[in-house]
Amino acid sequence: MSLLELMMQQTAGGSAPVDSNGQVPIVSGQETTEEQRRDDPPTVEPSGETALYAATNLDSWETDKPRHFARDVGINGVCYRRLDPEYYAWLRHKMAMAKKALESGRLDPAAFDGLRTRFNDIHAWAVARFGEDDLLAAVRSLDPKTYPPPTLGTVQQDQPSSVSLSRPVPNPSTPPVERYLYPKDGEWRFTEKVPPSAVDKVDAIRDQALSLDWSEARLYQNRGRFRFPCGEDFGLVCFVDANERIGEVTRQYIEIIGPPPRENRLRFHNPDVDQPWLKRTNPKT
Question: What is the pLDDT of residues 207-237, one digit of tens each?
Fold first, then answer.
């Protein structure tokens, strides 16, 4: 039985990644329809050296220095726990409870939609890191009544591994970096993760590009209606990798140069201006 099937049986579509209609989309290895693919959570690819910390309100942040932090970390009065399959299963259970509260009218639809979006991000990260089999095993073995949730200043003395599960810890010396979002407002189905180095490279050519009729959205946008790189919503920052640099900047395109020795050159075109292969015609009046 797949993770999707188990979630549907246990929660009737409650806490697996859910779409705007409260339905459970396909996880890996399942046949999908076009409508279901549009509702899939965003794909993330965490490296082996990163960890995701999540709070019970489903806020989360990622760090590439997990060895610097305890399993439970307190920030501004909120306790975050390092995500593992068991904690993922517990958060999934809480999402199921939120879905039931929505259906009974005890939870505002807008509040549920915010929880849904945050949980889908956590789910995508967990599937990419732990794999479906480990998450499925955690879902099956979880007992929500005995699982100790993250709590500031509390040690679960009744757990055999109480020190590792929950303990008071000092605030980290370096707070998590705010997640890059452009635009910050609006309803967007997908968000592509952007490294700070990509933003710095685009910042360096920003004024030149704007003077050549590029818009800020074409340079910086990382949120879209479709999964990256589909559609025309995603800007230049989403296409510049850490080992690449920006070359020629023109009105029609911006050049992306790959790493040496080959230094392959790609062109990121501006769809808002005339291109040699496009012929614009005036609409009939």
Answer: 999 999 999 999 999 999 988 888 889 999 9
pLDDT in tens, 48-76: 578 999 998 899 988 888 888 888 888 87
pLDDT band at 153 (very low <50, low <70, confident <90, very high): low
Range scoring the smallest mean pLDDT among 11-15, 172-176, 281-285? 11-15
Rg of the chain taking only CA atoms, in angstroms: 22
Q: Are strands 223-224 and 245-249 parallel, antiparallel or unpaired?
A: unpaired
- Cα(115)–Cα(132) distance, integer angstroms: 22
Concatenated DSSP letters of the chain? --HHHHHHHHHSSSSSS--TTSPPPP-TTS---HHHHHTSPPP----TT-EEEEETTS-EEEES-GGGS-SEEEETTEEEEE--HHHHHHHHHHHHHHHHHHHTTSS-HHHHHHHHHHHHHHHHHHHHHH-HHHHHHHHHH--TTT-----TT---TTSTTHHHH----PPPSSPPPPPP-SSSSS--SEE----HHHHHHHHHHHHHHHHTT--HHHHH--EESSSTTSSS---GGGT--TT-EEEEE-SSEEEEE--TTT--EEEEE-TTS--TT----PPP-
- Domains in the chain: boundaries: 3-165, 190-269
CA pair distance 28, 31, nearest whole angstrom: 9
238 token code pair: 């989403």
